[in-house]
Amino acid sequence: MDKSASRMRNPLGIVFQLSRADLKHEWVLTICLIMAVTAVLSPLMILFGLKFGTIEVMRYRLVQDPRNREIRPLTSKSFTQEWFNKLESRDDVSFIVPTTRQISASVEAQIKDNSRSKDQNKINLDIIPTDDGDRLVMENGASVPNSNQCVLTNMAAEKLDAKIGDTLIVAAKRYKGTRYEKGMLSLKVSGILTDRASTLKSIYVRLHILEAVESYKDGQAVPEYGWEGTTPKAYPLYDGLVVILLKKLNKIDEFKLINNTGFTKIEPLTTQDLYGRAGYLLSPGKSIYLLSTKSKPAGHESVRSIGFRLRGKGATLIPWVSELKAELIDRSDHVVNSFNLLSLSIPEQKAVNVGMIPIPTWSGEIDSDEKSSDTAKWRRIMLPESVKSLDDPVQMRITRGDDSFVFPIQIESDSIPREIEQKNTAFVPARLAGVLNLFKRRNITFDNTSREFILARRGYAGFRLYASTIDDVELIKQYLEGEGIPVHTEAERIRDVTELDKYLTLIFWLITTVGVIGGVATLMASLYASVERKRKDLSILRLIGLSGTTLLRFPIYQGIIIAVGGFGVALVFFESLAWIINSLFSSHLQAEESLCRLAIWHLLIILGATVSVAILAGTVAAWRITRIEPAEALRDE
Amino acid sequence: MQNAEIGNSSNIVFLLREVHKTREKGGVLFELRIPFMTAKKGEFLAIVGLSGCGKSTLLDMLGLVLKPTSAKDFQLSIGTGTSEQIKIDSLQENELASIRRKSIGYVLQTGGLLPFLTVEENIMLPGRLNQESDSSAIFDLVKRLGIADQLTKKPKHLSGGQRQRVAIARALACKPPLVLADEPTAAVDRLTAIEIRNEFKELTQQMGVTLIMVTHDKALVENVADRIFTFNVEKKSKNHTVSTIHELKIT
Description:
The complex is a heterodimer of chains A (637) and B (251).
Chain A lengths: L1 H6 L3 H15 L1 H38 L5 E4 L7 H8 L4 E7 L6 E6 L11 E8 L4 H4 L10 E4 L1 H7 L6 E10 L2 E14 L9 E5 H11 L22 E6 L5 H7 L7 E5 L1 H8 L8 E6 L7 H10 L6 E5 L4 E5 L5 E9 L4 H7 L25 E2 L12 E7 L2 E9 L13 E4 L1 H9 L5 E4 L4 E4 L6 E6 L2 H13 L4 E2 L2 H43 L1 H9 L4 H4 L1 H32 L15 H26 L12
Parallel strand pairs in A: 4-8, 5-7, 14-18, 15-17
Antiparallel strand pairs in A: 1-21, 1-22, 2-21, 3-4, 3-6, 5-8, 6-7, 9-11, 9-12, 10-11, 13-14, 13-16, 16-17, 19-20
Helix pairs in contact in A: 2-3, 2-17, 3-14, 3-17, 14-17, 14-18, 17-18
Chain B lengths: L11 E14 L2 E13 L3 E5 L6 H8 L7 E8 L7 E3 L5 H11 E4 L11 H12 L4 H10 L15 H13 L5 E5 L7 H18 L2 E6 L2 H4 L5 E11 L2 E9 L3
Parallel strand pairs in B: 2-10, 3-8, 3-9, 6-7, 7-8
Antiparallel strand pairs in B: 1-2, 1-4, 4-5, 9-10
Helix pairs in contact in B: 3-5, 5-6
């Protein structure tokens, strides 16, 4: 008796223990009530779990999966580096890397392992460029490889039987004459992507490796990897051609000059015009024509074909380049001066004939065989007399937008006489002017080893672009389409899931509302009925001295106990069913995904809401208690 | 003991003077009049009457669950001495509940036990509510009432007599100055009724507890109760009944 007395002595606990004892006494009814709560809660929990689980799975797949943030061009174009720079600077672009033509983006790969037979596991892989910040690589279990590394897709790794740390021999193949040539390269496998990234056999490498592969396949040499081939040299492009004749041409001959020669326009010029437009000063009495092109500048062939058509007429041809600016840089990389460059190449004898001054020493170099020509012969400049001569070595820098390139140049000992000097104008050989003119359109580098102007790649056929978030995809898509680039996105899937989420949420809340109303009604009715049924007992409690206000807690406590019990049973049901659902669909789910699932905080919210409802229902029942008179105990019906 | 005046006021547990209660039910006015009534410490008072005479109304008022319509005096002296005299008029529900809890034990017709508690828990309940209990005294009580081996049972497993004994044990558990018993033997056979009556009387006398027992069975309390009160019912009109309480002379 002692034990029981002390256990039950806590005054606050008495009502609780009485409520509990009552529920325990009428355990069958209590189970019924708990089941009623369970009946309301379990379907709601499963519904909510499914909603949360499926949407979460889809959101996870959508939001988390970089593939859904990918924007792919539908057509192959030529994208310039500037274009990439512009896109990269956008906030909504998380990552962009140029890609080459699809056709040149495949290599043969094999694990370097002497113990295996040579042809084993030699497979073709798609070669895909990557760079720092590549979401696809970084969010699928690998890090971006460096220049000596590569990342494989899971499929590729399986086919190759490759592990992280293996060395992979990658071969670019090209067909030359009657046989295949291979450019070999060894890369260390630094990571293997999960299947989520791609189910194709692909290898991810730095862009320059892909470019090397493309160049090699195009027949070019890649010195970096010791791959042999041709080197694309920069060629001159002219905006026009100044034709100087001793006699005027007839109309037919004039027309001949613009008929299929590459030039489209012929205009006669006065000596003064020529000086004004091109800076060449001639003695008077000559017939001067300026041949020009409308859009596409003319090359060597055009100049040569004009020479051919005017043979025997004693014509002097000066290839002309418009508006060419360059800077001279001294040995300490300081800009010394900047000039407008004029193209001037004319054989000495002809210069005398047309009375042209001055005549630089390169003057004979008009269109000698460009291929064999040593660039040092025409990397020269004639400065105005007013400019102080500079110490060697001097370099020239030519700039286009953000790009520029620098090459060594030789200053002529002669200078442009003051009388014909135009402001900041210097003469360069036509060949150089033409090559620099090409830089307006194509990227050029000067290779210090071969002393050649090398033509850089024209642009990139495509790109791999990832938006920062799935919400940015649509904006970037619109932007690109505005630029005339049709693209493919996962926008529709994104929209579908967002809408599905919206509708499921709506349906869920509708059902929840009905369910909650049902739950409130059930609990309220049960507790109210229970109070009604226990009038006698409750009135006895009041008679023997529990005040009405204390006794209010009786149905509230019972409500809470029933609610918690109902929640517990519903939780067991939910977990079992969720397990069954997730097992059934496990083949469609990835490791951490589950189709039916609730987070801890969801469960806490549900428990909290259920208990609140129970308290509410209990309070209504309690209100009934205040109307029970203790005197009722004294009545025996 | 007839016309018992207040010999020693410290012995008085109850003092009612000119207490009236008027009730209206179904258009019929019922009036209960108590000209004068006292109960002394340790006394066994029996209130005998047929149904409808106002027994219940009187018991409600004595049990502090019904306030009189008017009263010259309605005093309850609990504990010792007059200093704890309580004027019922001035008290709130909570205070009344507190007095009921501390000072009044109740034995109802069918026991008034809580079905969801065991016998032991039922008996201990007043102690728990008052946060005091004398376990050994209670165990004595339980032994004397012969229900010591019933403690772990629920009331529904007890016989009628056992149930009433448990109710008596519960009513006496906190040694209240006053125990009200409403037809405590109405639901048991004659023999048991007499046994229960005797045990009840014996215990209350020993403990110095005032016992007020309401019964319709005059024979049961005749020659046993210290004093017996009964009702004189008059029909003043078709719709007006007056019941006046008076003490029976014990012969």
